[in-house]
Amino acid sequence: MVTAGIAAPGxxxxxxxxxxxxxxxxxxxxxxxLIDPDLDFIRTLSQQSGESYRKCFQCxxxxxxxxxSPDKDPFPRKEMAWAVWGLKDRxxxxxxxxxxxxxxxxxxxxxxxxGPGDVLAAVRRASVIHYAAxxxxxRWVNQPRFVPLLLGLPALLLGLAVWLREPIGNALGFxxxxxxxxxYAYSYMYPHWLLNSFFGIFTLLALTxxxxxxVRFIRVIKAPKVWGATGPxxxxxxxxxxxxxxxxxxxxxxxxCTAEHSRPLSHLCVFIGFIALSVVTFWVxxxxxxxxxxxxxxYPFSFWSPWKLLANVGGAAVFFxxxxxxxxxxxxxxxxxxxxxxxxxxxxxxxxxxxxxxxTEALHYLRMVPHRHVVYFIHxxxxxxxxxxxxxxxxxxxxxxxAAMIYAEYYGRNGSGSSVATSRVGGTDDELHVQSPTSGGxxx
Amino acid sequence: xxxxxxxxxxxxPVILVEKDAFLGGRVMRSxxxxxxxxxxxxxxxxNTRRIRRNPRITVHTLSTVEQVAGKAGDFTxxxxxxxxxxxxxxxxxxxxxxxxxxxRPDDLNMGMGTTKALYYPHDMAYPxxxxxxxxxxxxxxxxxxxxxxxxxxxxxxxxxxDLEADVGAIIIATGWRPxxxxxxxxxxxxxxxxxxxxxxxxxxxxxxxxxxxxxxRPSDGNSAKNxxxxxxxxxxxxxxxxxxxxxxxxxxxxxxxxxxxxxEDAKVTVFYIDIRTIGRLEKFYYGLLEDANVSFVKxxxxxxxxxxxxxxxxxxxxxxxAGEKPEQSFDMVVLATGIVPNTADVKIPFELEYDEYGFxxxxxxxxxxxxxxxxxxxxxxxxxxxxSTAAALxxxxxxxxG
Amino acid sequence: xxxxxxxxVCTGYGIAEAxxxxxxxxxxxxxxxxxxxxxxxxxxxxGLAAINEDINNEGxxxxxxxxxxxxxxxxxxxxxxxxxxxxxxxxxxxxxLPGSEEDTQMAAQDYLRMYLTKLQKTKPLEPFQPDEExxxxxxxxxxxxxxxxxxVEAANAGYDVRLVERTDKLGGxxxxxxxxxxxxxxxxxxxxxxxxxxIAEVDGHPRIQLYTSATTSQIIGAPGLFxxxxxxTGNGKPEGEVIDxxxxxxxxxxxxxxxxxPRDNLPxxxxxxxxxxxxxxxxxxxxxxxxxPSDGKEVKNIAFIQCGGCKDKEHHSYCSSICCLTSLKQxxxxxxxxxDSKAYIFYEFMRTPGKYESFYRRTQxxxxxxxxxxxxxxxxxxxxxxxxxxxxxTMLGKQIQVNVDLVVLAAGMIPNSADGEAIRALExxxxxxxxxxxxxxxxxxxxxxxxxxxxxxxxxxxxxxRQGPDLPTLEYGFPDSHFICFPYESRRTGIYPTGxxxxxxxxxxxxxxATGAALxxxxxxxxTSRGEAxxxxxxxxSYPDFFMQRCTKCKRCTEECPFGVLNEDKEGTPxxxxxxxxxxxxxxxxxxxxxxxxKDYSVDIVGSMIKAVDVPDEFEExxxxxxxxxxxxxxxxxxxxxxxxxxxNPWVRVVPVRCLGSVNFVWITDAMSxxxxxxxxxxxxxxxxxxxxxxxxxxxxxxxEKNVREKxxxxxxxxxxxxxxxxxxxxxxxxxxxxxxxTELIDEIGMNPFKGM
Lengths: 444, 402, 757
Description:
The complex is a heterotrimer of chains A (about 450), B (about 400) and C (about 750). In chain A, about 60% of the residues lie in helices and about 0% in strands. Chain A has about 450 residues and is an all-alpha fold. In chain A, helix 11 (about 235-250) crosses helix 18 (about 395-410). In chain A, about 45% of the residues are buried. Chain B is globular and about 65 Å long. Chain B has helices spanning about 1-10, 40-55, 95-100, 140-150, 200-205, 250-260, 280-290, 380-400, and strands at about 15, 55-60, 65-70, 75-80, 105, 115, 120, 130, 160-165, 170, 175-180, 195, 225-235, 265-270, 295-300, 305, 315, 330, 330-335, 340, 370. In chain C, the strands form 9 sheets. Chain C has a 5-stranded parallel beta sheet with strand order 7-6-5-11-22, covered by helices on one side. In chain C, strand 24 and strand 25 form a beta hairpin. By secondary structure, chain C is of the alpha/beta class. Chains in contact: A-B, A-C, B-C. Chains A and C meet through strand 1, helix 1 and helix 3 of A and helix 11, strand 16, strand 18 and strand 19 of C. Strand 1 of chain A pairs parallel with strand 19 (about 400-405) of chain C, so a sheet runs across the interface.
């Protein structure tokens, strides 16, 4: 199938329409584009986002109401058109779908109940699978019927690890706790060298996969024409990256959403909590060899150790965030948008990780044997699922969305030059102020 | 009204029941008809003369059908007639109304402005009598009236009447009302002063309307120079009216002409999804394309916000052909609100089928009961006229069958 | 019978306060020596009852009520057989002029004089009854959905119908359709056309006489008295052979439409696999599959091009209103045929009005239907026979291309109508071409022939009318004359165009339209049999009477009548066909010999009313302005002027006329010699968006006005003394301005020099 790139030779006479002559920058490919709708892709999207998306009649309400969509070639209207026409390639190459935070303002006001927000979500899912390496794994991760396999695999591996820890340990000359050391923490079950190397190896694999996917993606979106530019902009890439990262940390794009207010909050909790946990984990793993804390690094931490506290607070944040997310998705279907397996898988995995984590901790303090080991085992399974399947699950959005947002900033798509977009995220002067959703009579 | 006349002129006795104080319905609130830009009063004058001339028509204004019993060829209809408090024995004169103090909201002008409690429904009112709004009438005015009104002209004790009639067939021409624009929370009606509806525009443009025909912005009374028409304000929208109201496009184009004809510098922008100027009406659209001050933008307006200072309106909309979200600021916005059948809330007191929107189902007519016009589906004057003519024949057939 | 006139002067409504009622009575009793004059308190309700009582007791056969506007009385307000003339001195004098002033009193008295004069000259009406009996059966021309419906509906109402179809099959275009667009809630699924059932109903109907393969070779006569001759179109019987001759009362013209062929205007129109929606429809109907004309291969992908790719001012400037729905429907045909097929629809505007929006939604839900706004700029045929379609300004981007097996053009609907007037003009021109007495005449004729030649042989009804064999058509060839308020009106009484011949419409619309047209036809025969006029003076029992002895055969009446009422014999003598008449009086206005008159409306009556006004001599500085106003618009405006208490003008005297077209310009010259200082004619808007209910009346007046100016010049009069205004009822507020300007003008040019001569 020929790529559905779209061009503008010939000077269309639109005077009758009274509209401007400008060519949507994204369509600046040379040569007219032959289009061939991909019916299978349409079926997938219908399945993922509901048939009614095809009722889109291109009124543009979605682009108009989107709080973060820029002035030039705004989304998601054009994406809706491509989706209705099953233009798979064009959608997979479209960074805009990653700029969308699925706040669903568009879906709420869509006169055809076409749910543009959900369509973009479905496209993101398709992209994750498209860019993933190896692709088959991504397909598995995103289909319920593979759950047993996907959870069984880590269970098996972790089981093997317990079973083989002594022979391996002896072979490699690592200390293997013996019977009476059962009072010791989980290191009886998984000595640190084992745990670290086990997760180390798989994390490295996952990381490689992630990087491959990301590179594939960036190869596409770094092209100036994708951004309607002729060449690389005279803007510092690092600077843009920094701005984008700041945006991500402050969630300021996310907060401009009006349809579902608690959403940014829940995401922020999970986001911060997850970072906290990662930091602690990193510290722990690198503890023994970390020059920063040669001395006084006692593991396991005491309950009051700042590390332990950080971990617990982080865990709590993730827990709280997950609960919120689950609540929104169940309670407020209309505004939260469609919840697919793609979404649920991530939320529940996260949830399972923190819940099992806290359970393990609790049982640990209660010195309950062997329950704590069973729960710990389960905990590790979910941690595995969360981390190792990251490039294939919705979790991958931390890669793709970040990349997209950085390049958007780099090419000035996020506002600079497009007042509406900037105004959305807290513009100051009057005219912008009126536009920002936090003012103006028209808000419910 | 048309159905009644057409049937009566064939030679068939007709009872015409109208809930308002006057005949004519919605069109009496229109300034001009598209596409000829001619006044509804012109055809209406002919129709009132036809009624005056035709002894076979009995008109009951201020009346509603309370009960329908029986079957095709033999219905018994109970009619409730509200009191007018004006007897019609001696027609009144504006000077009498002038002497009253109590006023009431002017429903003819969509609540813009007021009238005296004693008022002449409109210039062409038929029957040609004043109407007295007793609720609005103050005690002192009661005194005044009894003093100044000619003997027998006014009867404050006039009671509600219950009438009964035997008819062979029934025609439902209960018409429509505009969709409640305040439900369109994104479009700022009721929150932004300068956002009005198309039905209000009809009155504002009419020299006999609340502004004497000057098209002024409500907020400061300055004449509107840069006006946006927002099409499909509620229509073609599954959150509001999933169907197309069929007349809004032409209505807006017509109102664009009002503006352009009243002010040569006025600018008009029409935001649309599809311009639906069907049949020979297309010419009207072509006409406006010639006008440099009228522009058409394909894109549905997503949101309207008000500039607190200037009270100007900022529109969030994508020009979908250019693929841009231009800054759009206007000094007045007209919402093309759609058509809701009156039968959506007040049903006919008889076992009838309605479609999901509350229109009288256009196909599964009960034998002997026939619908016409906007009771059946959204349509313009011409379509409503031909449908009522058709309904008249169906009714006559039914009566002849007995 | 000897007239016995009574006058009632109403004192209520502040009339007595503003006017000297006794003086008014004196006008009646002394100037007109009316035997009975009475001041009454009211002329409504009990007041009116009292008046009617007096009328009966006094044995009056004519009465004048100086009180409220005639527009406030129903026709049955007065005793039968008594001619009552209500005079609106309340609205036109008391309410619009300052009270108790000499000029106001003069106005009131003048109005009394005018209407007493009218009353004296008005004769009782006798409804027109032809010698032969009025036939109440109907002729329906055209056996398509509209024609069939009209026939069945009229027959079911108890009227005999004769249905004539040109081809050998009934059903028209609908019979050629596979399925029809949804007509029932929820308006989602395609339906059976239902045409077969309808045809069966027509076939078996005892009241319907059916003629196929037949056309109307001649229709002479008038409503209630049409004599029709049918001839064969050559299926079975030899072509041209007379099939039948019969009399009918009224005609429904349901001659349908012909598809446009946009291919002629398109660069890619010549490609084999570029067809029209009608062709696709027949293909599916006949062979059940959609295949490619070029190689018979089954079609997988289709591009539907709306507006035939060329709806613009040059080619097909109106919208055919059903093409969008048709393409959506046909897209579903393709989808049923092959689940992997793709149907592209390129439109400028998707037009699915009203509840058809549901059908649009339903087709969108189908995964293989791809509608987008876009303009097809080119179609190229590839070597593999695939058609490559280029579209610009789409919703997917500035320019896209798709490959399809078949391109379907939405062809517009052209009404099957013929322009009777054009055909007649063509014939006349041809004759002049041969017999013309001057070269210039012949030259003009040649031009006309060239201009109108495309009308040659387009006759459909073949009416025996002086003004041509078919209904005159308006823009785009649609024959309806008042499509907003009175959609069935045409310019030939008793002939009602319907269905796609009247304007583009779908099947459901045609059924409704035809049912209504059937009613209008029935109404026409009923009213005609009662001797009443049809729209717009529905129920009027007067009719024109021609005093033939004085006729000069100038043909003005026969040419100018908007409704083709008058035929001509060889010498050009007008032959009245009274049941065609709409009672507008245009003939009366046209006739230089003033031989046309109605019993209650004639050159003499109005002329005398004008002259009845007491014109003061020029030294009194009281000018007199005559306003001749159309009874439907300008005249009611004077009522509203009073109702709204706006300031009228004391110099003005207004006379209502049925139509400005009925103004005989002798009235103006008479007025001038009678000493009026100026005349204002007020009529309806004319031109493309005319509002005149007699179509041409006000326009004719504007033409004649020019002749009058010449006349005035001959009389050495300033031509500015005559003005023509187009005034709508709701423009009553403009009246004071008009009068002010006119009086200023009079002040400038001075009083009428003929005063007091």
